[in-house]
Amino acid sequence: MIRFWLLLFLAGFTSGLANDQTDWYKNAVVYQIYPRSFKDSNGDGIGDLNGITSKLDHIADIGATAIWLSPIYTSPQVDFGYDISNFTDIDPDYGTLADFSNLVSKANSLGLKVIMDFVPNHSSHLHPWFKKSEQRVKPFDEYYIWRDAKEINGTRAPPNNWLSTFTGPAWKWSDIRKQYFLHQFADGQPDLNYRSEKLQQEMKNVLEFWLSRGVDGFRIDAINHMFEDAKLLDEPSANRTDIPKEDYNSLVHIYTKDQPETYNVLSSWRKLLDDYSNRTKSVTKMILTEAYTTHDLTIKFYNYGSTAPFNFMFISDLNSQSTAMDFKTTINKWLTSMPKNEVANWVVGNHDNHRVASRFGSQRADQITMLSMILPGISVVYNGDEIGMLDRNFTYSETVDPAGCNAGPDRYQYSSRDPERTPFQWDNSTSAGFSNTTKTWLPVHSNYKTLNLALQKTKPVSHYNVFKSLVALKRKPVIASGSVQVTRVSTHVLGVVRKSGASVATLLINFFDRPLIVKAQSILGLPAQLAIHTASVGSALSSGANVNTASVRLPGAASVVLTTRELLPTQ
User: Fold this and answer.
1) Has 513 been annotated as catalytic?
2) I want to staple 494 with a disulfide (CB 3.0 to 4.6 A). Which of 76, 181, 387, 509 is the partner?
3) Active-site option among 79, 221, 235, 418
4) ∠470-476-477 over CA atoms, to 5°?
5) pLDDT in tens, 129-174
6) Is 142 a catalytic residue?
7) Per residue in 441-463, pLDDT tens?
8) Among residues 40, 235, 258, 290, which one is catalytic?
């Protein structure tokens, strides 16, 4: 068995316990809040800023470092906030700028950083910029991607074959301007033109505005869609016969994604944030970049200023059928290809993908969360991950997500993101404690009476307690600055070992649905005896129990963290 050791002091994410001003993010837990579904404070069935503020104690309680807010800007809600009509104000559904200031103040009082969603690829079609651009008012006439129509057999047609991620042509005709505009997402989300220097400055002004209101960084949405091929060349066919030709995946997107100019714009934003921190003597500002792309192109974002180019391996590359070797190979690939002095990150889930407990199954709901906490660097979790929330099944008539609606009744279930966006399940009261009304913007999952935060807090074994204990362990030097070894212990078992001096923490994951005996001591170089720090729900393993590492019994589909005794949670 080949052992894979990384001495973390060779990498920047390992420089000991982080300095709060400059290195606060290096061992962070970033908690994503989908505001519309988190907590409704006024009974309209829609989550809001005051609702979030009222629940910040919970986020501090579980040990998060920062909250990341999905869009709360003024928006007609075509794509539930990702279509922005004013980048520097709050949508009335969510509250006011004063409410936002109160949220930041309360978060800071609890030791929480605040990260905003920044949506640079497009605006709403109701944004004043777009209305002026449509009327050819300078300089706004160049703020969007406009092109003349083609004529095919005497009929007007789009400039090329590009498709929207939400199905159908990526071009929409304007009767006002007599041209097509590009929209890589919904047609209410026209793409901005980053070849306009004035547009670039407008977006820098947006960043400055929110920095001045106390935010600690930005998560940059769909960053690799920002530029398109200047020649507007047709994209090649993916030659798929299993999907309709208007489906986004029917083309290979070599001209609408991953263009090299993107990285230079990111670099200019990094400079802006660093200059702001230096000028105001405030903390280092975090940049999280979202790009569903190749491994190499994702890693490249590090070199241009991304604190954490989102590592989607647990969403895009690995699934419930992946083996211990698949996990070992994929994790080690990230750790070894990261540039020196950068920070690893592990995304557990988000608002665009099925919930982790649904992707991997209820029996393995804790597995990915545990991995994200034991591995070095930043853990990014989605609200509800900490209690093992599950997707809710939707009918087409219930579907509100434009991606699902546009796909049609036969294919909506492949595109809709509604299942993972249902309201947070706080307790067993009306609407799971999310709202005092029974009519919420999305229906509450029917399992809320047995799966909710309040109930899990009363139980000695729960997803909530697993999550909280692992975050506490993550704060210890053995995780914050220890060495890391990722090994396939046997065909069905993955081992992650962290060491710092005499302290040892080991995560063992059984990918098999039946119990196995593992000779962990000899294979992983462990002390002869460790204790159970945390075990996945359903494993029936007791925290604090001693374990002979020469012969560890792992229940089926279980994940368990073993540590030296000084690392055990205090009772």
Assistant:
1) no
2) 509
3) 221
4) 140
5) 999 999 999 999 999 999 999 999 999 999 999 999 999 999 999 9
6) no
7) 999 999 999 999 999 999 999 99
8) 290
